[in-house]
Amino acid sequence: MNITGKIVVVTGAASGIGRALCLRFAREGAAGIVAADLNADGAAATARDCNGLSQHVDVTSEAQVQALVQTAERHYGRIDLLCSNAGVIFRDGDDAPNEHWQTSWNVHVMAHMYAARAVLPGMLARGEGYLLHTASAAGLLSHIENVAYAATKHAAVAYAEWLSITYGDKGIRVSCLCPQGVRTPLLMGDKGDRASFLNDGSLSAEEVADCVVAGLADERFLILPHPEVLKFLQRKTADYDRWLTGMRRVRAKVVDKP
User: Are 205 and 19 in contact (CB under 8 A)?
Assistant: First the structure.
């Protein structure tokens, strides 16, 4: 996909990767951009900066996601690319309460499903369209600190795979964005000073947006801003038990250290 002249909707657009995507798509010549977020002020700021349209949306509400798609289609006539990008992480370790599990599931899985369900009818009627789902390297590998994040990001990857399998021969292209550490509030905290084992080798949101534009142009399913993730995934599938042993060592070093 060449972004020039395309109509794009981005959720989680108030900050981080979502904001960077909107700004990069604008530079690529997108004909229209809708910046959506639960943070209405942040979405409005992003929309101003990319000359787009802002929407206050809770992605865990199917009705609000449907309304987002309807507004974008009414304003611009169609949606060429929908980037389902909102994310959440709780600092629970391995003892996440049920409500954090449920919120993680709603944001990382159901929100993707709501977005696809809302936008696919129009795309299928035209015989073309693109879905970009932001997951995580944790969805391919794991997350040694947060069980709800790891599990729901795996589900996000699986859902993107299913969409590609089901609709790939009907003109619908699907990409799954799986970065490791990205210097956004999700990783670094609101003040940007949170320590994490992922800080080393982390990328800026702008660098991730560059990778997304390249990945969309190649129409790659897996967009991996950190190339080493593919090597880790290959090692995992080549010898699962050895990989699990290695991950236990990493956890002992990072999480269980005295």
Answer: yes
Domain spanning 7-254 has what CATH number? 3.40.50.720
Instruction: Find the catalytic residue in 114, 149, 159, 167.
Output: 149
Torsion of CA 197, 201, 206, 209, to 10 degrees: -90
Q: What is the DSSP string of 116-154?
A: HHHHHHHHHHHT-EEEEEE--GGGTS--SS-HHHHHHHH
* End-to-end CA separation in angstroms for the chain: 49
Contact at 8 Å (CB) between 163 and 131?
yes
Q: In what order do the strands lie in the sheet with 129-134?
A: 53-56, 32-37, 7-11, 81-84, 129-134, 172-177, 222-223
- Compute the distance between CA of residue 109 and CA of residue 152 in angstroms, rounded to an integer: 7
Tokens 């879905």, located at residue: 131
Give the model's pLDDT for residue 58.
98
Helix, strand and coil in the chain, % to nearest 5: 55, 15, 35
Q: Active site includes 114? A: no
Confidence band (pLDDT; 50, 70, 90) for 91? Answer: confident
Which tens digit of pLDDT belongs to each residue from 5-64?
999 999 999 999 999 999 999 999 999 999 999 999 999 999 999 999 999 999 999 999
Domain map (residue ranges) of the chain: 7-254
